[in-house]
Amino acid sequence: MNSFEIKRRVEYYEADVTGKLALPMILNWAVLASKLQSDALGVGQSTHLARGLGWIILQYEVHITRRPAVNEEITIQTYAAKYNPFFVRRPFAFFDAQGEEIIRVDSIWTMIDINNRRMARLPQDIVDKYQAERVKQIPRMPNPIKILPSDDMISKDYHVRYLDIDANQHVNNSKYFEWMQDVVPTEFLETHEITSINLKYENEIHLGHTIQSQVVLGNQSSKHRIMLGEVVSAEAEFNWRNVTL
Amino acid sequence: MNSFEIKRRVEYYEADVTGKLALPMILNWAVLASKLQSDALGVGQSTHLARGLGWIILQYEVHITRRPAVNEEITIQTYAAKYNPFFVRRPFAFFDAQGEEIIRVDSIWTMIDINNRRMARLPQDIVDKYQAERVKQIPRMPNPIKILPSDDMISKDYHVRYLDIDANQHVNNSKYFEWMQDVVPTEFLETHEITSINLKYENEIHLGHTIQSQVVLGNQSSKHRIMLGEVVSAEAEFNWRNVTL
């Protein structure tokens, strides 16, 4: 098992109004750690792009003990834990300067053929580099609880912006977090702190699309859905704890 | 004159679809360099906040020779050049790994009383630390060319999002770049590369506001305006060069 770590400092433009690391940045830093590990192992983007393949994330689980504040120095540790011919399971742990684990992320990845966007078999020579454990079945993550037709739903339209698209020509994964959080009323965001996220991607979104971010608010939980017309693009479930102002 | 520098590497989530540093990040990195200089000189945020004062930017000029690509290591150099009792002029230079200057930013700053949002006199002991040159008049920047009523204008509404607000409780300055760029048609963005920006802030924007981003496109220039109802929030002028696809 090849473990890898990176260090990041929280800068002011990576924080939200609370002065703590913004939600989408958690995802950006996790993906950055896995990218840099792939580069370090000599199987980075140029290797798989040359074969017409790209990594995509299918599902995330995020557990947040606390979000780090501006100026904090964070270590992000990751490794490819288990794989089978189609999937890899990759955990990430975020440690603060005292060595306390403050955020844990788990993720399921697959590879797609860049041209037809279909799932592809993982090339053995690439997977071998990560020294993951080969398993028959990748342990599944629970599905996010679905929004029901009877639920009292809040919904808002978001136009996919030029800067939502990254160098891979697709909507940056972390934008889904932004749309899902932004539709939650400010009064709720000001009195609640997020403790966990379970997010599952279903269908891709492109530049120029207008998506609908839908949320059903519970007391300490929320159900989310990103819709592109009648098509579900992503579903998620967030958990929250009350905070005193 | 106290010069200061920081180093940053372009990460994938800081790039746009071209694989090069996104426009708003230029501003974020410049402001970061000035913040870290203030911290290093012992006159950072805690010092001026304790006196009820905050720094704000009034105007920017940005000249871009080339935007750095993902993985490039950039050095950002800055110093407070000139000041008078109300204004500071601060340049920034971005150098690539070969020591070539690839981006140059100039900026005019003032301090405001946090409570009434009015301009405040710069405290002499704070300004002294930067060892800037004291002048009678801060050299002015030209005003961006204004949009005329007769101009053929493209306009789009943007709702101020939760994550547009930073830890200072205000819309992050760099969001104006995003709104101004996003309203430009994709076909133009795909065939033009930005070479310079002159942006002047007029009035603040807050969470929950819906602003209008307006643009008048020329051949190799564009005029921009951010409106909050009938109030001008910012004006800008961009210059572009043609790029071959």
Characterise the protein shown here.
The structure is a homodimer of 245-residue chains. Chain A has 245 residues and is α+β, with helices and mostly antiparallel strands. The first copy, chain A, is 18% helix and 39% strand. Chain A is built from five helices and 13 strands. In chain A, helix 1 packs antiparallel against helix 4 (174-182). The mean pLDDT of chain A is 95.
Question: What structural class do you assign from the helix and strand content of chain A?
Answer: alpha+beta
Helix content of chain A: 10-25%
* Overall 3D form of chain A: globular
Spatial extent as radius of gyration of chain A: 18 Å
The interface involving the most residues is between:
A-B, 34 and 34 residues
β-strand amount of chain A: 35-45%
Mean pLDDT across the residues of chain A is 95
Quaternary class:
homodimer
State the separation between the terminal residues of chain A, measured CA to CA.
Answer: 44 Å
Element-by-element helix/strand order of chain A: EHHEEEEEEHEEHHEEEE
| Helical segment count of chain A | 5
The unreliable regions of chain A are none
Task: Using brief descriptors, characterize the structure shown.
homodimer; 245 residues; alpha+beta; 13-stranded mixed β-sheet; 5 helices; globular
Compact overview of the structure:
The structure is a homodimer of 245-residue chains. Chain A has 245 residues and is of the alpha+beta class.
Spell out the blueprint of helices and strands.
The structure is a homodimer of 245-residue chains.
Chain A: E1 4-9, H1 23-40, H2 45-50, E2 53-64, E3 73-78, E4 82-83, E5 88-95, E6 101-113, E7 119-120, H3 124-129, E8 133-134, E9 154-159, H4 174-182, H5 186-191, E10 192-201, E11 210-217, E12 221-228, E13 231-242
Parallel strand pairs in A: 4-8
Antiparallel strand pairs in A: 1-3, 2-6, 2-10, 3-5, 4-5, 5-6, 6-7, 9-11, 10-13, 11-12, 12-13
